[in-house]
Design brief:
Number of strands: 0
Structural class: mainly alpha
Number of helices: 11
Strand content: under 5%
Order of helices and strands: HHHHHHHHHHH
Helix content: over 70%
Radius of gyration: 25 Å
Number of domains: 2
CATH class of the largest domain: Mainly Alpha
């Protein structure tokens, strides 16, 4: 069969598909693409409302009004309001995690410089869209469903922080897994209570001083060790390596 014959068959199939129920394209989008687009509209509306008026003042009708969609389309993507707000929280927290992971790829090796670099990247993420800080640090505790998911997301968010800590200070024994987890969660709590008032202007501090203070805080927490002391042989070997530099 000639190439032109295949082209003719392709045109016939495309025209046939377009006439099948539920498969017609609208404004250039296939049905599945339209569902995805409407879901993204709803999530964007959730980010706007949760990040401005708060989760307590957010309703399903308000979401639909903000998104410019009917309630029918809400239930097309989400079973209830809690499910949408949880998705909003996940969207923001995972974006923050990915932003930190990207920052780590260009971070300096020096521990203090690394922490300052990551703090600056996180500050950029929050100041680029101040709704993010409210959703991450305030609205995450607004409902039982959000609180439960927030507890799970903290571990995902703090994973790159724990990685940074683990790559850090050679003057002290390396942190074991429990040290890294405890320190990373302590860092998350500390950052929440630092960023919240700074973003709202309650603490009128310059960006430069804020980042520097937060980085020093991370450094201080990262040095905390509660695990068993390392064996003397390991300590001697580590000391021998360090003396070579």
């Amino acid at each position: 069969m000639s190439t032109s014959g295949y082209e003719k068959i392709g045109v016939m199939v495309a025209e046939s598909d377009a006439t099948q129920p539920g498969t017609r394209r609208w404004r250039g989008l296939a049905p599945a693409e339209r569902v995805t687009a409407r879901r993204e509209q709803l999530v964007a509306a959730g980010i706007e409302l949760m990040g401005t008026v708060g989760a307590g003042e957010t309703s399903m009708r308000g979401i639909c009004r903000q998104a410019g969609l009917t309630e029918r389309y809400f239930y097309e993507s989400f079973p209830n309001l809690d499910a949408l707000m949880t998705t909003v929280l996940e969207t923001v927290v995972l974006a923050a995690r990915d932003h930190l992971l990207d920052a780590l790829t260009t971070a300096p090796i020096d521990r203090d410089a690394m922490f300052l670099h990551c703090v600056a990247a996180f500050t950029d993420f929050l100041t680029d869209d101040r709704r993010r800080g409210r959703i991450m640090f305030v609205e995450c505790q607004a409902t039982p469903a959000l609180t439960a998911r927030a507890d799970e997301l903290i571990e995902l968010f703090t994973a790159p922080i724990a990685l940074t800590i683990g790559a850090g200070d050679y003057r002290n024994p390396a942190p074991d897994h429990t040290d890294s987890v405890l320190n990373a969660n302590a860092i998350f709590g500390s950052l929440a209570y630092l960023y919240r008032p700074w973003l709202t202007g309650s603490i009128p501090v310059s960006r430069e001083r804020f980042d520097e203070h937060a980085a020093r805080l991370l450094t201080g927490i990262a040095l905390i060790r509660s695990g068993p002391p390392e064996p003397e042989s390991v300590a001697r070997e580590r000391g021998s390596r360090e003396s070579e530099f």
